[in-house]
Specification:
Helix content of chain B: 25-40%
CATH architecture of chain B: 3-Layer(aba) Sandwich
Oligomer: heterodimer
Strand content of chain B: 15-25%
Shape of chain A: elongated
Structural class of chain A: mainly alpha
Radius of gyration of chain B: 26 Å
Shape of chain B: globular
Number of domains of chain B: 1
Order of helices and strands of chain A: HHHHHHHHHHHHHHEEEHEHEHEHE
Number of strands of chain B: 18
Helix content of chain A: 40-55%
Structural class of chain B: alpha/beta
Distance between the termini of chain A: 80 Å
CATH topology of chain B: Alkaline Phosphatase, subunit A
Largest sheet of chain A: 7 strands, mixed
Strand content of chain A: 5-15%
Number of helices of chain B: 12
Strand order of the largest sheet of chain A: 1-2-3-4-5-6-7
CATH class of chain B: Alpha Beta
């Protein structure tokens, strides 16, 4: 494409600036057309014709500048064509409206009036249409509805916000380019570098074009970070003239830059899962954070609403029930500092089973029978059963607590037999076994088998 | 506004325009304010449920309690947690030739003074700790050390207020009050904010522990060590029913007063304090009765030590554990009186620091280890800090002067990444050169671990919303797990 002369582009760049003037005039004219129908605003009538004329003239200038801007070649495709022709049509329609407006002191003719109002309506429609396509060119197509609430999304049959990206549960199945790199570019770069709007002759919406780059040269040189123009641009100091995205747009986060850097270092593969590239621990963490792997989905999404009566029932028995956070309806129940822990009917805890994630039962005279109820509290994350009279039989009831992350059994008469149960608690991260009957050897074996699990069982001593 | 005579031709006057629009502008401002307010208090439950469940953290907390180990007087960072080999190399040289020396409290700038104590690396993380703290050193894998603390004040009283209240002037609420204001107390029989008085009242006095403009029921209760931990806790009346009658009568009088007052906070707080004091008649003796503790536990805390100060601080640490076990949110320990001044060694550094360190080292290590074995360290945040640091050069011959430009602070427990060292000082340990951390940052981090957004914990006083962190404070994310 031959490049247009500087003076052409100079005026072209004024298009987004100038274009708002006719928009204002035309909307004013349309507005006045409608309100002046009421006797109260009849006095406005004589002015309307002038405003249509102003709208037409400024519209023509804006359209001309718009055409000059299109010569730059950064904008292509259907959106540009629609915007261009709709813009021209709007100007023509505005001119027709001007012509069909009654001149002052001419008699009203009903038929002509109807035709005129039809044109006015059409102008409004086209103006909206043109404006929308223009904005799409500037900001990218999804800009307007990016933060739309769910009812509006459904009405426009847009994908639901939460399902925007398929959920990644493991780095084994995550494709480095498709699932990590591309979404970053889409969120930060593609609104200006797409087949419709090709800033710097660079398209970043598909793999081949990303590698190809734009007018400054190859975007990505596989395996060579320092020679990859794309990486240079995003990693420059923010004040630098070449820094991308340009001023006023959100820059990439450090995490996003790191991911793109790692992708280039790995020879910028198109089809490779993250695991297959053997990321080191730090990189792995980067991706886990990106995809939210290892996050507790239940905690992210929240529990069902709390029933006040159930809480009252527990509180009346002296149990301390507290809300753990403003959102999410998560509850903690504490028997340890209750004045009358013995008289509590433990099975009442089942009333808040859905919300209860922390349970404090230290020194609360808990025995094996009680654990039958506790085994049903499957949403528990933290459970403190220390200093009670629990045996292996009781512990075996806990096997159903699949979400348990922290379990305190210190000061209970449990033995090696409980190890089998404890092993089955997959999400368990911390286990307290001081002053139990379990031998250090079997604890060491458990630790060897579950390296992620932290077991604390030593007697505290001072050397 | 005059009566409008010509309905059509006369346009709206400027005054009329403003008159009509003022409501509109006002409601715009209102919307924005109200919108923020709503977003802040957006809690998905009915009003009555909120009262039913008491105060709520903003997000799921890591820590439920804090034990604040206050090292009164300012521990020397270069002699404890921030080794500086260069001090040994240049020992006895003139500091003015090495770096720009700020004005010091006493202006008696001596020579560069090397640390009298050797450092060794400890734990899996290899954190260096000096000989002053051999026991705390054995806990370094649970400790996150911040070497880059700075204070705004070079003098004890202001620095103490600053450390405790986030403001250098007297009269602001202490951090323990803020935390209880935000979270409420779990135990109705004990105060939510307890100071265990080791014998030294910090410069600035009890104003370090006051509730300031927060309701008076949030101020600290100060427990002394010794046979009677709380003054007047034993009833004077010959029979319990006499006390009941007396208290009922006082309450009746107080309640009759409330109606006639504009602000009833003081009276309401007094009533609730009386009620709490009544309950504490039974809860305090139970709390301070250590007979249920094993000999091994008492030994762990150093309660069998030859040093009476170690014994005393040990029993405070044990009491601190017993308090948090009973749901007390914030426990602060002040230092014992070791006959060598607080940590404020303007002279005779070696003797003074050794005495102070010996008193607190084993009890603190015992506390960390005991909490860890019991699983309590998972929900308790321990903070160890002085109000500022000390100079790397001598004051006179063998002391060190105040240094607000750098000091070391550490945290251990709930939500803390053990074995971390954050921030760096220059080669002399005189000034911070990397990751400067303020007292506000420390407060923000403490609140964060308790599930409180420090920017949202506010109280309207004197016409503005005041926070513990004022308009400052950044969470120290690098030390969090």
């Amino acid at each position: 494409m031959e490049k247009a002369s500087d003076i052409v582009l100079f005026f072209g760049r004024f298009h987004p600036l100038v274009v708002h003037l006719p928009i204002g005039f035309l909307i004013l004219a349309i507005f006045m057309e409608f309100v002046s129908r009421s006797p109260k605003f009849k006095h406005l009538k004589p002015s309307i014709r002038l405003i249509w004329l102003l709208g037409t003239l400024s519209g023509a200038v804006a359209a001309l500048f718009g055409y000059l801007l299109s010569l730059e070649g950064s904008y292509t495709g259907d959106t540009l064509l629609w915007h261009q022709w709709a813009g021209i049509a709007t100007t023509i329609l505005a001119f027709i409206c001007y012509l069909t407006t009654d001149k002052p002191r001419t008699a009203n003719r009903i038929g002509r009036k109807r035709v005129h109002m039809l044109f006015v309506g059409l102008t409004l429609l086209l103006l909206t249409f043109t404006g929308h396509y223009g904005a799409n060119l500037t900001h990218g197509a999804g800009y307007l509805t990016e933060y739309a609430p769910q009812p509006i999304r459904s009405a426009l049959s847009l994908p639901s916000k939460n399902n925007f990206r398929k959920e990644i549960t493991s780095l084994d199945s995550a494709n480095l380019f498709e699932d990590a790199v591309k979404p970053i570019l889409v969120s930060r770069c593609v609104s200006c570098h797409n087949p419709e709007k090709i800033k710097g002759r660079l398209i970043l919406s598909d793999y081949d074009n990303i590698l190809k780059g734009g007018k400054s040269g190859a975007g990505i040189v596989a395996g060579n970070v320092s020679r990859s123009e794309l990486f240079r641009r995003i990693s420059l100091p923010k004040e630098h003239e070449d820094f991308m995205p340009p001023e006023g747009k959100s820059p990439l986060s450090e995490q996003q830059i790191e991911i793109i850097k790692w992708w280039i270092e790995q020879e910028a593969p198109k089809q490779a899962t993250i695991s297959s590239l053997n990321p080191d621990a730090e990189t792995e963490k980067l991706f886990n954070d990106l995809f939210g792997i290892g996050k507790d989905n239940f905690i992210q999404n929240g529990a069902p609403p709390i029933d006040r009566k159930s809480i009252e029932q527990l509180q009346n028995q002296g149990v301390i029930v507290s809300l753990l956070a403003e959102e999410g309806n998560f509850l903690e129940a504490n028997f340890s500092i209750s004045e009358t822990p013995d008289s509590v009917n433990l099975s009442d805890l089942l009333l808040i089973k859905d919300q209860l994630i922390w349970l404090q039962l230290a020194k609360s005279n808990i025995n094996d029978q009680d654990l039958e109820v506790i085994g049903k509290l499957t949403n528990l994350r933290k459970l403190n059963l220390s200093q009670n009279s629990i045996t292996d039989q009781g512990v075996s009831q806990l096997v159903s607590l699949k979400n348990l992350q922290q379990l305190n059994l210190y000061g209970n008469q449990i033995t090696e037999k409980s190890i089998g149960t404890l092993k089955q608690l997959d999400k368990l991260k911390k286990l307290f076994l001081w002053q139990t009957g379990i031998s250090p050897e079997s604890i060491e074996r458990l630790k060897a088998e579950k390296p992620e699990l932290m077991v604390i069982y030593d007697s505290p001593t001072i050397q | 506004m005059g009566k409008r005579k010509h309905n059509i031709h006369r346009p709206m006057s400027r005054r009329e325009m403003l008159g009509v629009c003022k409501g509109g502008f006002g409601s715009l401002a209102f919307m924005s304010l109200f919108g923020t307010q709503m977003a802040c208090n957006r809690i998905d439950k009915s009003e009555s449920l909120l009262t039913q469940l008491g105060q709520t953290p903003h997000y799921i907390p890591k820590a439920k309690n804090v034990i604040f180990l206050y090292m009164d007087g300012g521990v020397s960072q270069v002699d404890s947690f921030d080794p500086k080999p260069r001090l040994a190399k240049e020992n006895g040289e003139d500091p003015n030739k090495k770096f720009n020396v700020d004005n010091t409290q006493f202006g008696n700038v001596g020579k560069i003074l090397k640390s009298p104590w050797a450092f060794k690396q400890y734990g899996e993380c290899g954190m260096p700790v000096s000989e002053l703290f051999p026991h705390i050193a054995s806990c370094v894998d649970d400790i996150a050390l911040v070497r880059s603390m700075v204070s705004n004040f070079p003098e004890h009283t202001n620095a103490n207020y600053f450390l405790h209240t986030g403001s250098g002037i007297q009269g602001r609420p202490s951090m323990g009050s803020w935390i209880n204001y935000g979270l409420g107390s779990e135990n109705n029989n004990l105060p939510g904010f307890v100071v265990l008085d080791g014998g030294l009242t910090p410069p600035g006095g009890v104003d370090n522990f006051k509730s300031g403009f927060l309701p008076a029921s949030y101020q600290a209760s100060i427990l002394k060590s010794g046979p009677v931990p709380l003054a007047n806790i034993n009833p004077q009346e010959s029979a319990p029913y006499l006390q009941d009658q007396k208290l009922d009568y006082i309450k009746q009088l107080d309640n009759s007063l409330i109606g006639g007052l504009g602000s009833a906070d003081a009276v309401e707080s007094a009533i609730s304090n009386y009620e709490l004091a009544y309950k504490m008649q039974s809860s305090i003796p139970e709390l301070t009765e250590f007979s249920s503790e094993t000999k091994a536990t008492k030994k762990l805390y150093g309660m069998d030590s030859d040093d009476p100060h170690t014994r005393s601080y040990g029993s405070q640490c044990l009491l601190a554990r017993r308090l948090i076990e009973r749901g007390v949110r914030f426990v602060e320990l002040t230092c014992p009186r070791v006959n060598a001044d607080r940590w404020d060694q303007h002279n005779n550094l070696k003797d003074g620091h050794e005495r102070n360190a010996h008193a607190v080292d084993q009890p603190i290590a015992g506390l960390i280890k005991d909490l860890k074995s019991r699983g309590l360290l998972e929900e308790t945040l321990i903070v160890w800090t002085g109000e500022f640091g000390r100079t790397p050069f001598a004051q006179g011959k063998d002391g060190r002067d105040h240094n607000p430009s750098a000091f070391s602070m550490w945290m251990a427990g709930a939500g803390i990444k053990g074995g971390t060292i954050y921030g760096r000082t220059d080669d002399y340990g005189y000034r911070v050169v990397e990751n400067e951390t303020t007292v506000h940052d420390m407060h923000a981090t403490m609140l964060h671990l308790l599930g409180i957004n420090h920017e949202r914990l506010r109280f309207r006083f004197g016409g503005r919303d005041i926070r513990l962190t004022d308009v400052h404070g950044h969470i120290i994310h690098d030390i969090l797990s």
